[in-house]
Design the sequence.
């Protein structure tokens, strides 16, 4: 019987700037007496990666530009946070009361460029990690060295879905596991017809892990997924999940490209 | 340690019209020697619910209207399928080459009104279940009676996410488990600040189960989620996940409301 287990790793310490994410993950796994098996996937909340990489910014250091003030007026957002959104983005896709939709410099669309006030000190905000794929790959290599097995790492975050009333865990960075699982030409439906379905595999892994990470107070930033079947890959990148052409066409419609 | 397990139930038979979904689920669980425990969640692929409810339509019986032909010309979709989309929807939100975005009669936004050619006989398509919450509730009551414990049921389906390159399992119907998990006023972040985060809980459960349901050929429409902590509710509805105001405002922008 095909069974997958999700294990929340307890007691991950509060992360400080310049901590090594790999060391933190390793220590937490050891303290929890969890050793990784072949093809286990470690899912890490992006917040602790951001913190370790010093991506927590004090708002008092930010001077908003005229453009940031304009967008802040329409959206009702703090102009300093809007200034950071602009710096973190390739483009601003939509501004409405209460929402700024951005094309993040990493290539995907998200609200507020992923900038977040939760679980950081008052007066500061966290930015997304500098390069989540690279951060995931670093942790992966450390874990593979330590445990002597092939494992994967996914970095997840909470994102909104258009027309839906809350947030869901989606993938932000991947290493060792496909971001997108493509139906290949051998893939057929139960009536033996060819199908070309692509599954947002890393997003589904991220959503699953988010179930255990839970609400903000839970403070569980680390979940191990065991038993999931997938093709090991060295080539996976988070941008495999992104339809750039759709983003470009929407930007072109606004005269931004 | 907080642990959740996902079990794919094998050998679910091909479902025929007028089968009882509850009986099918029960038989599959018994054949797999799986008995449900308190707060287990049974996730069912919407496709088998549609089939059991006779929601598989032969395209030869459909005559497209003028409006359906118009939308078919722009989108490149089969005019008969577009006719069904119109019948299944409150409104058509966007039409572009390759995509028709609909407001489904059940209240949420999805492409092609959830109409799908996969895993049904050639020349037919499946529509979404008539009332997925009700279908979920029926199965739930049967399972609770049979196993003598409180369990929940989620019906899931594959949906696209805007700007993302594939599909993800999201919730279509719920019974016994919150669709949306609201951060209540006691909920605080790790710095003890109040947070009002709402989590698309049934969507995360659906995505997790979809990992095991896998590609179309896998044909695993039934997954049991064990060990997940959640508040039991009798009041959950799939529309808890939907931001109707956002849909209404987008429709109003098009002069459709």
Sequence:
């Amino acid at each position: 019987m095909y069974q997958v287990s999700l294990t929340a790793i307890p007691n991950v310490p509060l992360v400080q700037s310049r901590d090594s994410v790999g060391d933190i993950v390793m220590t937490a796994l050891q303290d929890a007496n969890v050793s990784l098996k072949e093809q286990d996937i470690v899912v890490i909340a992006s917040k602790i990666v951001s913190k370790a990489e010093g991506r927590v910014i004090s708002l008092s250091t930010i001077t908003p530009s005229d453009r940031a003030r304009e967008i802040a007026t329409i959206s009702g957002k703090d102009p300093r946070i809007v200034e950071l959104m602009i710096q973190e983005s390739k483009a601003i896709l939509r501004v409405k009361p209460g929402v700024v939709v951005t094309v993040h410099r990493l290539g995907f669309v998200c609200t507020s460029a992923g900038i977040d006030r939760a679980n950081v000190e008052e007066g500061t905000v966290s930015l997304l990690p500098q390069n989540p794929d690279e951060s995931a790959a670093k942790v992966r290599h450390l874990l593979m060295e330590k445990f002597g097995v092939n494992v994967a790492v996914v970095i997840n975050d909470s994102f909104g879905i258009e027309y839906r009333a809350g947030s869901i865990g989606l993938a932000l960075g991947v290493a060792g596991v496909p971001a997108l699982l493509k139906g290949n030409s051998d893939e057929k439906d139960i009536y033996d017809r060819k199908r070309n379905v692509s599954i947002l595999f890393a997003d589904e892994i991220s959503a699953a892990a988010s179930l255990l990470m839970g609400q903000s107070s839970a403070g569980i930033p680390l979940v191990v997924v065991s038993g999931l079947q997938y093709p090991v890959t060295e080539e996976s990148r988070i941008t495999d999940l992104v339809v750039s052409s759709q983003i470009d066409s929407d930007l072109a419609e606004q005269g931004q490209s």
Observations:
- Chain B has seven helices and twelve strands.
- Chain B touches chain A through 67 residues (CB under 8 Å).
- The radius of gyration of chain B is 19 Å.
